[in-house]
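User: Can you predict the 3D structure of AfsR/SARP family transcriptional regulator? Sequence below.
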Amino acid sequence: MRFGVLGPLEVRTGEGVPVRVADLKVRALLADLLAHAGRVVPSARLIDDLWGDALPANPAATLQARVSQLRRALEDAEPGARALVESRPPGYRLDARAGDAARFEELVARSREAAEPSVRAALLDEALGLWRGPAYAGFEDAAFAAPEVARLDELRLSAVEGRAEARLDLGGHEALAAELRPLVAEHPLRERLRAAHMRALYRTGRPAEALAAFEEHRRRLRDDLGADPGPGLTALHRAILRQDDEAPGAAAFNLPAEVSPLIGRDADVRDVAGLLGAARLVTLHGPGGVGKTRLAVAAARRHPGAAWLVALDEGAASGASAEEIATLVAGVLGLREDAGIPGGPAGRLAGALRGRRALLVLDNCEHVVEAVAGLAAALLRDVPDLRILATSREPLGIGGERLRAVAPLPAEAAAELFTARAGLTERSAAVAVICARLDGVPLALELAATRVRALGVEELARRLDDRFRLLSSGARDAPARQRTLRAVIDWSYEPLAEAERAMLRRLAVHTGGASLDAALRVSAQSGVEVLARLVDRSLVVVGEGPRYRMLESVAAYCVERLREAGEYEETRRRHVRYYTALAEEAETRLRGADQRQALTRMRMETGNLRTALDTAVHEGDADSALRLVNAMGWCWFLWGRPSEACRALAQALAVPGGAPAALARARTWHAGFTMLDGDGSDRDARCRAALAAYDAADADGGVDGGGVDDPWGRAWAHWFLGFARTGFGDLAVIDDLTGVALEGFRSLGDGWGEAAALATRAAQAVAGGDPGAAARDGARALELFGAEGDRWGRLQVSDTLGLIAEATGDYARAAALHEDALRDAEGLGLWTEASVRLSRLGRIALLTGDHERADDLHERGRRLAVRESHRRAEHFADIGLALAERRRGRLEEAETRLRGWLDWCRAIDGAPGLAFLLAELGFIAELRGDADAALALHAEGLAAARATGHPRAVALALEGTAGAHALAGRVEDAAEALDAASAARAAAGAPLPPGERGDVQRIARRIEQRVEARVRSGGPPAGA
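Assistant: Sure. Here are the predicted structure tokens for AfsR/SARP family transcriptional regulator:
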């Protein structure tokens, strides 16, 4: 859709067909949304804009009705266009801008960058030709449109002035003078417009009229405003008096030309230019090297009046006064002390700027921020039309200031900048590494780009740990503070007070940021004032929480400073103590109603917890290392990260020492996670070793007997190891482990532990073919988990009950249970669990014949598993996709997908998936008519199924065996295998539901056909 506001409100389709929006209120709503240029407009604001005091009976409902009308009008014209009107708290936004206004601004901006007058004039002719009347005609007096109308009108007048100046260089002065006369009368105080008119008069041989025009302007300013003409217009007047053929225009600029394109900042430039239209003081703040100056200059080029850049880092010494800064600014504007304006430097500056639409860009204010703040406040008070755009690593802190943070470049823009500066034609993975490690800071990327020629991209990426030595030379024409990466940060660090330096360097030990409490405790500080000052100075970035972090380069710099100060080791020890205590406190809340909050906090602190463990291991602190991994075990378990857990536990267990109880628990975690990671080899020995300490205490009566006297730990260890062995076919062993756990938890009165043991026993009962016992244990576990408020436990039981419903053909109940479990998993942020639940729902969709939905659910589950690096969940999802392929008859695609997992399944001792995988491959071979291959696959599958002890897996392998025999003509063997399969399913209490009978029905028909053929040929029937 295309929207027009440079005249009456206009809506057209992408093909240019007009769209009728008849209702006045709906048109007003559309205009309001357009005027906010993609920003969310609160519902309360829209109601006030549309109805004012004349409110309808139900304002919110009436607004919704108008929104619906607008969406319907757009949708009727162009399908899908209703989505442009988005509902976003706390109101609505239009995901589109006024196309003619955006095009107008683009053309005006391009004209300012064009060197040739003819090009500038052509661009501005095109821009002004877009206007069909007053902006937002019909709504121009509405409060919601007024700021945007004023901004667009100002840009339009600026474009008129720019076109006039370009045409002065092209000739045709007589016509131009006549054209400008009514405009000057309409806008008598616009000095740039009057200057163009004076020059046109002068160049047509009418200098007296040009001088009279100046005199008229001077009198009007004096009488109406008590002011004098600006220095530019005064200079033009003097030039005409001297009869200087090169009389200058009134617009003044000293903005530097672009030497290289500004990359990745188009939206920022538009935003800053828009802020300058709404506020008189805008401060761009951000860390050193982030590109504040270039952004400010680019935005200043869009200013419709005069604009000057004042580089304070080059001319103002630290500690300069406001008067000294005023003298520097006056010098940039070309004002001398004899300019005839009283009041000292600040007064002369105010007098020169008064009456002009001027912009001062005060660049790099941080080392003279007090003086700049004083001067800016005075100028803004005394010069009504003045705008100031400041760049600083901290705010000026005066009234009316609008702060605009300048963030590092996002990944794509950072890569574009780096490759452009380095002269690269391709982007490798190393480019992404460099951009990420340099935080997307433009100056750091440009410094790094200078090293590509000597080192290449790969070597440069490898050497970034030594970044300050590596990035030690930049452009010779850059300020000294920007020639090396170290100098950039020195510029911010050196002026800090000692307390600020101490906190900043101590913050560097955190990884991934820190909470307020962590920042203060680890830094050994008691108040937030110092931290707040570091945030103001753009050395620390504050995010939601609040959470405090540093850019990687700043952190690396501060680590060096921390070592220099002799504080590195002690600060790291405080870091270990803090995060060990945090992990232990969180662990107590991970089995109950506080699960979600505890998991969220631990997820935020993952980097810090890893760093704390590395520190404890490096320093040989076995106590802290074991405390940390034991406290983290529940998080790794719930998140589904067994590989990460195994690595961390191995690190901690390798440190000599440690309390017996902590060692026993860590060894249990390690044994269980090893099995959860798919390694079932030597699992009996591993479990015995893990339980040895607990069993010794049980047998010998406590620690004197060489064991750990920890009844809860003993119960937990048996449960966890039993849970981890699920799927390896050890039904009897798991039953023994779970039984010990259940008895122990019940003796302690631990409801959560009893629920966990019952949930595991229920899952094993499903596998062992006892759905009645599974349902009873599951129901009791669900009740106990509910009393504890444990959502993880609830989703585990829901999964088991869902499998029972699926096995008995109650697909509606199965889907409902899996959906409940999915909601719990998503609510807790347990994405591995969510992946499995999505695949479970995919299986239900497949069994009910909805292949499209099945594919969608399995693919979502697969992507989530890949993101979480969880191979079991990925395998489960991918097999689901293969099942759908086979059911559609796409045997080659299904086989390719299945065989991709065959080696992985065989490598995992006792993996439950192997039997199913071989069965599916056997069915594919049978469907292709290859009886020998089918039989071999089903024979291996039957052996794997019997090893697991799962009767349904055994039945499936026997059904496949029957199909292979039937294909080969061995009718008796086929019938015998099919009967055995049926008996196995009956014993398990789970006969085949309708959705799973396809293979058995096909095999049974083939057996019948073989028997009939044998009878017709005169042979004996099967079994004779």
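Residues 308 and 989 are 86 Å apart (CA to CA). Confidence is low (pLDDT under 50) at residues 245-252, 701-705.
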